[in-house]
Amino acid sequence: MAAFQIELKHLERNPVEKDFRPSAEALKALFDDISDDFRLTNFDGFQAKVRAQMSDSTVHINGEAKAQFEYKCGRCLDAQRFDIDTEIDFVLMSEAVWSSSYAGHEEIELSEADLDVNFYTGDSVDIGELIREAILLQLPAFPRCPSDISDKCDARYNERIGTEALEVLEQNSLDLRMSAFRQLEIAEDGKLRKKGNGKKSD
Question: Which domain of life is it from (predicted)?
Fold first, then answer.
């Protein structure tokens, strides 16, 4: 994505600092396919400020990224905001250089640091996907209200859902693939038969 591109020729002599503030269209393209639980908002407030430098053919990038997401609490269904301010630290190696260095090696022992390395081809690096990954890793696995308003969350939960409604939901949340079994019952002889039907099934 051109919005997050760094030309390698600019890194040949000195480190380069970049302050990425992509357009709303570019951000939508980058984050639109995430889960329905979270939605990127405040496009003007998105920022990825990085410092890039090159050592031989290896590119080191570090900095910070800021983003704001909106989500619905999975408990009380209230809309909430989640602010992200995270550090980013990437290492990118030339795929061509790496391949030529290890060509002919049947087995290559990788260290833990090697597993954090990404690769690039050509005369530029696009760090859009790496920034996206760093940001998404900060999102909670399950969308809930912040802990400091848990009492309000509980109150809204009871108001909107309540114990009786929850029991009804649980009773009707059987996997659809199992719905056919709801129509069956076990007869006295231990065989299955359809409810309300005297005919037995083997």
Answer: Bacteria
Q: Which residues of the chain have pLDDT under 50?
A: 108, 110-115, 174-177, 179, 200-201
User: Does the predicted model carry a pTM greater than 0.90?
Assistant: no
- Rg of the chain (C-alpha set): 27
Q: What integer pLDDT is reported at residue 1 of this predicted model?
A: 54
130 in helix, strand or coil?
helix
The single-letter DSSP state of residue 24 is: H
What pLDDT score was predicted for residue 55? 87
AA identity, residue 163: T
Residues 87-134 have pLDDT tens digits of 999 999 888 876 776 555 555 454 444 446 788 888 888 999 999 999
Question: What is the spatial distance between Cα 91 and Cα 100, in angstroms, rounded to a whole number?
Answer: 18
> Which residue type, as a one-letter code, is found at position 21?
R
Q: Side chain identity at 162, as an amino acid letter?
A: G
Which distant-in-sequence residues (6+ apart) come within 8 Å of 79 by Cβ? 70, 71, 72, 73
CA 10 to chain centroid, in Å, comes to: 31
Tokens of 145: 């209200």
Nearest alpha carbon to residue 86 among 69, 66, 106: 66
Helix locations, 122-195, DSSP H: 128-136, 150-160, 162-171
Tokens of 48: 């990825």
Q: Which two tokens stand for residue 169?
A: 């939901």
